[in-house]
Design goal:
It is built from 18 helices and 28 strands. Helix content is 36%, strand content 21%. Bound molecules: FE2/S2 (inorganic) cluster (FES).
Length: 671
Amino acid sequence: MKHETRAARTLHRWCGLTVGMLLVMVALTGAGMVFRPQLDPLLQPALQHVPACSAPLSTSRLIEAAHAAYPDAGALSAIRMKAVQGDSVAPVRIRFGDWRWVYVDPCTARVLGIRDAYGEVFGTMAWLHTFSYLPGGGVVAGSVALAAIALVVAGFALWALTRSAAPAATKRAGKAAGLNPAARGLRRHRMVALWCAPVLLVLALSGVPQAFPIAAMAVPAPPPLPLSARTDIAAALDAAGSRLERDYAGWRQLQWRVGAAGTSLKLEIVEHGAPHEYATGIAYYDPASGALLQHTSYAQSQSARKAYLWGLALHYGAVGAPWQLAQFAAALAMPFLAWTGMGGWLRRHIAARSNGLQRLVVRDKHHVARDVYAFELVHPRGRRLPAWTAGAHIDVHTAPGLVRQYSLCGDPRDRSRYQIAVHRCTPSRGGSDAMHDAVHAGDRITIGMPRNRFALAPDSPHTVLLAGGIGLTPLLAMAETLSASGASFELHYCTRSPLHAAFSERLHERRFCGRVLFHFSNTVGRAAFDSLLAAPQRGAHLYICGAAGFTDAALAAAERQGWPAAHVHTERFSAPPGPQADSAQAAFDVVIASTGRVVPVAAGQSALAALHGAGVAIPTSCGQGLCGTCVTGVLEGEPDHRDHCLTDEARAVSFTPCCSRARGPQLVLDL
Ligand code: FES
């Protein structure tokens, strides 16, 4: 599945990046022409209708008048006519050797005007839309249409593949985003794309055969011409035209095509009962006598030709106003999709370069304990990774919109890779599920720079590391560092059973011999913290990492055993339950120091939510006061600190708006 996902992502991305701007131009010009049938009459009312008459002039007389008005136009190439409607009729349009149409009154032979097919507003849009300004414009237009098909199909496949691989929580979030107009970023891109993709696909599919000559394959071939003594096209058209009503009773519109000398006259005719105005039958006439040689009605046409003609009708919006509106909306969505798609890609790459984010490759993913996977992350081109120290963690962008912190658990001296381990949380907030189910070896993943809020104290005469479950990870890196430096330490690893103990093989290696003790709660009972922490050595430091209950019990034991608070260090991966202070329910104001703007924070609302609601961008990640991502400076007021990451010194000048509040009516933040 991962190969398909990667292939779909690559195809979607490169189609978008290479032809995205051309697609935007094609879409905007297409959107501009959607309502051409309704708007053109308003722009050129004199060329739309003339009074009908009982005896229209002959075709040769109309050609003569058109030629007189436009003598340098070259040889006759096409004539378009529409049937009489009530007491009016459309002017006959006659084209010679260029792209100009001469409009002639069929009753008086008066020339009403001459229009360039690619002139004026709609003509210019058509000129741009079809790349007619380029020598191989048709091929370019067809290639852009093919790229649009690949873009849509790959985008849809990517959505389906990532959705099927996503954990249930992420699927639910994706569904919510799909129905939510307030969705942002990639979710909004997906939401709009899913609604527009069917229409865009139809438009692109129907554009391809117009650009390439494959459409001609389904057109009935002209019959061989009889031997004729003379060729007078105008007279032949008169002869054929005099029989039109008899041959095609109730016809609606037609176009004569006049080819090179010695070829048949071709008639494309929309007969009575045709399902749309592009549902043409094909007839061939003798260019000398005007005799009908062959007629294939629309109903008798091959299925491929009918499909092509339906494609034309859909492409040109000839199937009704609802479809026109859908075309218009889908075409207008293209600039938005290009903006959000390319913008998201650029943002990710610019951010990766400017904000310390890195795209790394998952070189290995393997099981290290029950419900725990270890991931090995390396640079795509094998470069050395930024340095880090034991106790550091990285932000991992586990899925779109999900950022989680994981401690680095490898050896800090090894700059060739980062190693993390992820325990599947139950219930998961989406991060561990995404890492377990949707991230695989070979994938690329975005991470932040290593940060350390749990560093080893220097020159400690002895270090006690107390790990509970997945809390081993930062302590394992500490054990590596302490072992490498020959420092005195002991690591107590508490898990439910040997099956739950991660990295056991590594912990049994020689360098840890005699320094690592396992405590399995279902074989030897819960680790007796009091006995483990009894009689602390003078100057020793204690590091505790585990679930909230484990950490709280260990902290209580350390206090009972007389560990100095300054020598006890913890890192939590979930906020401990705690009593709600009165201030948690109280409203207060946050003042933005740089502007003086006052942002009210309602009771029960976080300061971060209030600031985001006021349009103040503050980076956030854990939302629980664990990671320190949202830390801001505080200049005035008394914060009610509820974080688990700031030291006392840091709390004097800092504030975590994701969880902390104010003890008074106001806080002035250094923003
Ligand atoms: S977002 Fe993690 S501490 Fe605020």
